[in-house]
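Section: Multi-chain targets

For targets with more than one molecule, the full set of components is provided together so that the structure can be written out for the assembly as a whole rather than chain by chain. Components appear in the order listed by the source. The example entry contains three components.
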Amino acid sequence: MTRYFYDKRVREIFWQAALLLGLVATVVVIVRNASQNMVNAGMASGFDFLWRTSGIDVPFVLTSYTPDSNILALLWVGVVNTLVISFVSVVAATLLGFVIGVARLSANRLLSGLAGAFIEFVRNIPLLFFVLFWYFGVIAALPGPRQSIGIFSIAYLNNRGLTIPVPTEGSAFRIAAAVVLVGLIAQAAIAFWAKRRRDATGQIFPVWASGLALLAALPALAFGIAATVSPWDVPALRGFNFRGGFVLVPEFVALFAALTTYTAGFIAEIVRGGIQSVVKGQWEAAYALGLRPNRALNLVVIPQALRVMIPPLTSQYLNVLKNSSFGAAIAFPELVSVFVGSALTNTGQAIEIIAITLAIYLAIGLAVSGFMNWYNAKTALVTR
Amino acid sequence: MTTLRRGALVAAFALVAGSAGAQQLIPSPTLDAIRARGHLECGVHLGLPGFSFANDKGEWTGLDVDYCRALAAAVLGDANKVRYTPTSVQQRWPVLQSGQVDVLSRNTTITYSRNATLGVNFQGINFYEGQTFIVRTASGAKKPTDLENASICVAAGSTEERMAADYFRERNLKVSIINFQKNDDAIAAYDAGRCDSYTAGVGALAGQRIKLRNPGEHTIMTELISNDPQGPVTRWGDERWQAIVRWVLNGMIAAEHLGVTSKNVDEMRTNSRNAEIRRLLGADGNFGAMLGLDNAWMFNAIKQVGNYSESYERTVGKGSPLGLERGSNQLWTRGGLLFTPPFQ
Amino acid sequence: MSDVAAPSMPPLLRRLRQGYFATPVDAVVSILCIAAIVAIVVPIVRWAVIDANFAGTTRADCTGEGACWVFIKARFGQFMYGFYPVDQRWRVNAAGLLLVATVCFSFWKAMPRRAIAVPALWALMLLVGAWLLAGGFGLPRVETRQWGGLMLTVFLSVYAGVLAVPLGILLALGRQSELPVIRLVATIFIEFWRGVPIITVIFLASLLLPLVMPAGWDIDRLVRALVGLAFVIAAYMAEAVRGGLQAIPKGQWEAAAAGGLGYWQTTGLIVLPQALRISMPAMTNEFIALVKNTSLVSIVSIFDLLGIAQASLADPAWVGLNKEAYAFAGTVYWIICFGLSRWSRHLEASRKTTH
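Its structure, encoded as tokens over all components, is:
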């Protein structure tokens, strides 16, 4: 009998079974408690509430939602807003972070000192402060609607946001978007082909030139034509505020600015660490091969630095996604704000609503880290 | 035959009376728990001057707080034996449902769907609130329909959030409603100029206005867009506790109606010849004991906290910075809506 | 003449020229930087110092254009201790001293049986600290709802942080385990808590936990927030520890196994001490993130430093002093987090030199 206890395999199976059993028991107890408590308290349960009319007015909507839509549509508004604010903040924070990270390495000590001060400032203060600072700062800095700053008499900036004209009919824009997409695919194909040829023959194709044409000139042309042929809804002051157009609310601007500056402080440190991790010998080797400095940076240093940078960048991007929930503190209608805020109190179904919210964040996070892992594997493969 | 029947009737009466006298009350776990821990747990607002507001020493005052104090005095004999749990708009329901508080006294509007789906019961009305708007006087807006195209700040998940959306949608007026997680954030954003208006009940607006930088530059509209009766809330179950919560509120209103105040309550108990006053204050009968309380329950509440009028004037009325008229919150005998069933 | 002048330039001036104005581009960059510094620093100094009010006791004493620090002075006790009873505040100070003493002892390299003594010391500190703050056993009880301000921020950070360390180590070991069930459970636990925003975790702890407890159980709401934060931070700590574990060469395990040591002995005596030393800077960074994230509890009306600053703004006697309250609270956070990050960097530097 005791022989079995000392057998390593038996012991391993025993411990794993015990853990599994313990977990199952915990889940069962929690579910039983929850259902019993809800029955005792006479609380509603189930997911029927998703099809109830929401009745909630949301100030920043990119979908076809109206207060007459159901709560599922309200959830979708939250998801879309979360994705949009996260995406634009990630792009801006990456650009700003790269600039500050490179500035931190500058030989000019004033510049590197300033970059260092920025980094130390933003990294050591809670994000909530930045969100509140930008929000109340933005509102205080801008004039009221009647003293709006007009931009060519079509867009207006005031403390209710930036009101911009929108096309009332979008088919021309959809065609323009399709054209841009084709250009993007063409550029990707050219880059792929150029790289194959460089690896095979050593000849360098000016990828930047086709990129300029396909990624800058073509979209500008396509959207320019679309803009001139489409009818526009131009904002006009009426009563309290501007009527018509689309309003980029100050909540959006404040959350965007806060997420961008805060995350840029972290990305700058990643960029600095990444570039520093490429040893000096690599630069010297690149020069010895006759590469000019910008080629050395592009072909030798950046690919290697990127390999070091991608894992921490991924976690920063995921942080932006999670931190977009700080919008709840300033009434930006992202997922937590509209769903855990408004919908939860209107329906009282805390368990269902929080479970859905958690599941959505996990799903988006999983998708992002999956993509970044794929990208990481790709760059690692190419540079080695 | 008739004598036999009469005898049976007498015996039945005796049985009923005997069981009442022996205090065979249905169990009240909430009341037992309060007695065991020695204090009442009361859910209140995070900070709304006039209703529930903590000063810098953490001492709570307000109309809703006074109700908690009266309830504690009735149940435990001491109005100070209350612990307050400040709750946000979202937190108030889970806090009550899960039993973290015994009663929620947090200017919460009584609605059908809350009663039907949240597992909560509303135990009467201690404040007849009506929703309206506060605007900058300089804006010139006088009535709610003047607010077309306006931005309106509101607390997310409140009845006001949906009411305002419904109101303007029904009239086909476009407004922009900005939903904040906390009332204080909404009022701060309004004060900073983000919104043209902030919407809440008249009483709440009077309380929130004190927090603005220049209260004199703002006007509260007089036209109401809804009726929002508010009062203490309990969870389902424990009917005896629900009755206690209901009748302490009724007792405060009855005391005003009967002219009993914290000043004259001692004298009233010994000298009053009014039967209802004598029952209310425990001089006659066993009204407290019927619900498992001390017979001096309402005496303690009125002595230590006061009747409804005293509480109202001190917290939100003329004796307070809010300066509200009695309005709908006047007694039914004086043209208001405030009403209590009799103590019989 | 000029030939003579250049070398005789004062060394300081020469260094300045070489460092900042060597080329035209350099000069332009330097001038822009100086302009930026002036544009940022001057208004702040004017507001915070030159035009500020320091003397007085009420709102009426705030007369200048600048900051009104009178407000912070009047509310200082509340910012530090929340609503903790004034005559009991010595207990908070005592708990703070205890924390400082424990930190200092942890650095005493010559301590006998250090591997056991340090965790035991921290465990003791947590127990005594909780007794000092909450009361009981001879001390009058102080309800957690009376706690607040900086004291609550430090309490949440220290307790969640210290509880997260053992949990994080177990999770990291679980994720590295050869047993599939344990590996799966640890991985799911870690990825779940790392994947969700802390705001939702705090909502979860505050709104949901009470509904899944057996009827009649009532967990203090501060404890609930603490547990939520500890789970999240444990998941992040686990990843930091995993980094350290992966840096230990496989040979160490094999050597220990050849020496006849079991799993727990190998882990506890050989692998963990090295892995923890390597992951210490990363763990400190996670702790800094925790300190900053405690500010989110203000959303569920627990009055930490930021929460009490916001609550104080609602006082009708002191309206319109948002900037002062936020500036003060922000500076306190900054000092704590900056100090910790310096320490983390010092740890990393000393590790690099010793290896």
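Chain C touches chain B at residues 75, 78, 83, 143, 145-146, 203, 206-208, 210-211, 213, 215-216, 218, 221, 299-301, 310-316, 319-320, 322 (CB under 8 Å).
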